[in-house]
Amino acid sequence: xxxxYKPGACSLASHITLRESGMDFSLVGVDLAKKQLENxxxxxxxxxxxxxxxxxxxxxxxxxxxxxxxxxxxDTKSDRQxxxxxxxxxxxxxxxxxxxxxxxxxxxxxxxxxPDTPEDFKPTVRALLEKKFSYVxxxxxxxxxxxxxxxTIADAYLFTVLRWARAVKLDLSGYKNIEAYMARVAxxxxxxxxLAAEGLN
Length: 201
Known about the structure:
Structural class: alpha+beta
Strand content: 5-15%
Number of strands: 5
Oligomer: single chain
Order of helices and strands: EHEEEEHHHHHHH
Radius of gyration: 17 Å
Shape: globular
Number of helices: 8
Low-confidence stretches: none
């Protein structure tokens, strides 16, 4: 399998999930600005969406969208318990978190990364994100992981997205549960390996 990624982007969540799963894979870096692979090839020819992550399976089927990729990996390697079995309420609570992270946090950050976002709109974006950080901080009050007693694909995604706060100068120091959570996730061997492979600290 090949994972097409950009260091620190949302593809990091799929990268972490692959390492947690123990599956064999290789990494292919993508320059999203140029839509080019490391060897100069046109990324549009790989993924017509032009975004990361994309996972090229061994049978040459291309899977895109991080939430789908992570669910595929978790279900393929169900023994790693990165996602509870179908029919379990625990599974749907994890999917609930995945949807929240994708629609409320991930997309919430987008205007802060876009150069065409008006400066007078950015304080509104930041205020909305801070409300969502408070919700996440409260949710982590009594648990080690976001979706229950085990590390799941929701944790891989949440960790990835919350890392962006530093890039856009959003201070998470007031969210003590989030701070402790980020340290716990970062200490996992699979996460450490993924960060190192992407040249991140």
